[in-house]
Specification:
Hydantoinase_A, ten-stranded mixed sheet, 36 strands, 17 helices
Length: 682
């Protein structure tokens, strides 16, 4: 059969690190979950490689592709444990990040306030320097002011500097000159300029993106260096690749500099894995539900492709680079239930995490969580969890939920059901908002639940949303790891044009496309890609006078044909699709031109089986509280459900990485890819 060849995808979440490993010789997939080690990020990775070697016979020396997603960057922002930074900007514009375009997180709340910035106000220094809006120089940077700022910021403890000047999207020369001067004066400081991170118009968006990149740089760089050393110590020959916010991957050397591009890597990787599974199953329209220990993430897959956008939130801060569009809410398996001062039951956003975790884990946690509620109702606790690493203690779960039950004057079972109902209602509201923004009806979609908690609550959510079907993959708990395994190399590049669409603009469009295309091909070559490159181009466009742009895909042939009419028609159609309105006679502006350079990842083939109709048999019946009474529910083992298997709910399907809760009135079948299809009775 030839030499061993393993390809490994890894994703670190808030509670577990997930592994998805493919033996390309046989097509066999090995999956694994290991509890995270928050005090020593990366140590769990070595534990997982050891277990894969022991349980699956995977030789680390035979790993030819290793793709890794991590929440280190996002957690650094959320926990505010990043580098002490200073910001150098134009004199007179020191309040750029404080003003934040005068937008408030919640416009209609009287108690709303902006978050504290990642760069304190006394660490912002104004430098006399100015470019005009056309890119011509009005005043060169004052070197004496730079020297004074460097001395002051070092005295205040800054270890890194962000340089962001007005109109640097036109010309980054001023920023580059100041960066060079800082390197001469204080070589111990690391420096990022806004033009090198993401050279886009609008100083607030450009500045905050550069700040996020710098804020997480030391932790991500240190983490990736340790990762490379650990893999080398295990004799893994593959260069580590990192999942990106745009659903693609990049090498570790790139990740140490372009940290901002991996802040949403985990969420994006999950959607990427779900899109691959949807294409394999022939499912054109999917709503994904990824529930981990701390959050529930939602995304849309249309025609087998993830949807993209800008402005995704990293904690309290917007990220203005292309990312897979994901909506998140603080509802996860570890989300803590509580009773507020008005006697109202609430769930999340606080989470018990992996340490100590839900009470039923027996690791010292004593809060009632969503997972504990599932145990008390009887949906969980009938098998080992997380590949044998966890045993559910129903007594501890009942005690934790019981304390809330006493406050509410309900039984533990009724309280547990209320916790689940609140969790589902919170997710329902988030999906409705996301669907409204995207202009879609989720009843036209199938739900794909994954993550450790997605199958626990996904079917209940789908039923409440009026969705017709649920499609669940064979290994839901490791879909994010799979997403890295099948990901392409993908680099994003931008040019701001800020010009009216007209025949006279076409030469500038062609020039920008050619320059970005060359930059994209060079980037792929630096990543080690030697094959063909796919270039995808979109424009951020608007009607003149509008404040916001919409993303409009372009065909490069329109540029070659000197055809602004085709570009205009595409924008009108996109505007009508989103807002049910367009203005064929309106003047159109192109603000940004964005290009994605894509180098195809490996073509992987997972085994399939003949889909022959067969009735599945439950292993046994277990009692479950289903909202009104205790009902006997059939317990099935996922490993026993072969292609073609059929059964009906209520049912529990237990497997190594998760548990499916399937209510009454549900028909279930298994397809040739071993996906579980659930449909609801009318």
């Amino acid at each position: 059969m030839g030499e061993a060849d393993w390809k490994v995808g890894v994703d670190i979440g808030g509670t577990f690190i997930d592994f998805c490993a493919l033996d390309t010789r046989s097509g066999r997939v090995a999956s694994l979950k290991v509890l995270t080690t928050p005090d020593d990020p990366g140590a769990e990775l070595m534990t997982g490689l050891t277990l894969l070697a022991e349980r699956e016979g995977m030789d680390p020396r035979a790993v030819t592709r290793f793709v890794h997603g991590t929440t280190v960057g996002m957690n650094t922002v959320i926990q505010r444990k990043g580098a002490p930074l200073a910001l150098l900007t134009n004199a007179g514009f020191e309040d750029v990040i404080e003003l934040a375009r005068l937008r408030m997180p919640d416009t209609y709340s009287l108690f709303c306030s902006r978050p504290d910035q990642l760069v304190a106000r006394d660490m912002v220094f104004g430098i006399p320097a100015r470019l005009r809006s056309d890119g011509t120089e009005r005043q060169a940077p004052d070197r004496t002011a730079v020297a004074d700022a460097v001395a002051a910021l070092k005295a205040k403890g800054a270890v890194g500097v962000v340089v962001s000047f007005l109109h640097s999207w036109r010309d980054g020369g001023h920023e580059a000159a100041v960066k060079e001067e800082i390197a001469r004066l204080a070589p111990d400081l690391f420096v990022f300029t806004s033009a090198e991170v993401w050279p886009v118009i609008r100083e607030y968006e450009r500045t905050t993106t550069a700040i996020l990149n710098a804020y997480v740089h030391p932790r991500i760089s240190g983490y990736l260096s340790a990762l490379e050393e650990r893999l080398a110590g295990r004799a893994v020959p593959a260069r580590p690749l990192l999942t990106k916010s745009n659903g693609g991957v990049m090498n570790a050397a790139e990740g140490k500099r372009a940290c901002v591009h991996m802040l949403l890597s985990g969420a994006a990787s999950g959607v990427n894995g779900a899109a691959w599974l949807a294409r394999q199953a022939g499912e054109p329209r999917i709503l994904t539900l990824d529930i981990g220990g701390t959050s529930a993430d939602f995304a849309l897959i249309i025609d087998g492709q993830a949807q993209f956008g800008v402005g995704e939130m990293i904690g309290e801060f917007p990220l203005h680079i292309p990312s897979v569009s994901v909506s998140s809410i603080g509802i996860g398996g570890g989300s803590i239930a509580s009773v507020d001062g008005q006697g109202v039951l609430r769930v999340g956003p606080e989470s018990a995490g992996s340490t100590p975790g839900p009470a039923c884990y027996g690791r010292g946690g004593d809060w009632a969580t969503v997972t504990d509620a599932m145990v008390v109702c009887g949906w969980l606790g009938h098998s080992q969890m997380a590949y044998g690493q966890l045993r559910m203690d129903a007594g501890l779960a009942r005690a934790a939920v019981g304390r809330l039950a006493d406050q509410l004057g309900r039984s533990p079972e009724a309280t547990a059901q209320a916790i689940l109902d609140v969790a589902v209602s919170e997710m329902f509201a988030e999906v409705e908002k996301m669907a409204a923004r995207a202009g879609v009806d989720v009843r036209d979609f199938a739900l794909m639940p994954f993550g450790g908690g997605g199958p626990m609550l996904g079917v209940f959510l789908a039923r409440e949303l009026g969705m017709p079907r649920v499609v669940a993959p064979r290994w839901p708990g490791v879909v994010s790891a799979l997403g890295g395994l099948v990901a392409d190399l993908r680099g994003d590049f931008v040019r701001t044009l800020f010009a009216e669409l007209s025949p006279g603009l076409m030469p500038a469009l062609r020039e920008a496309f050619a320059a970005m295309g060359a930059e994209g091909r060079d980037w792929l070559a630096a990543q080690g890609h030697s094959g063909a490159a796919e270039l995808m181009i979109v424009a951020d466009m608007r009607y003149a006078g509008q404040s916001y742009e919409i993303e409009t895909p372009l065909d490069p042939s329109w540029l070659d044909a000197d055809d602004p009419g085709a570009i205009a028609a595409a924008f009108h159609a996109a505007h009508a699709r989103l807002y049910d309105f367009d203005d064929p006679d309106g003047r159109i502006e192109i603000v940004n031109l964005r290009l994605s350079a894509i180098g195809s990842g490996p073509v992987l083939h997972f085994p399939t089986a003949p889909d022959e109709l067969r009735a599945a048999s439950a292993e046994r019946s277990v009692p479950v509280f289903t909202g009104g009474a205790v009902t006997p529910v059939g317990l099935y083992r996922r490993a026993d459900l072969q292609a073609g298997a059929r059964f009906q709910g209520p049912a529990i399907v237990a497997q190594e990485d998760t548990t499916f809760a399937i209510p009454a009135g549900t028909d279930a079948r298994v397809d040739a890819h071993l996906n579980l299809h659930l449909t609801f009775a009318e």
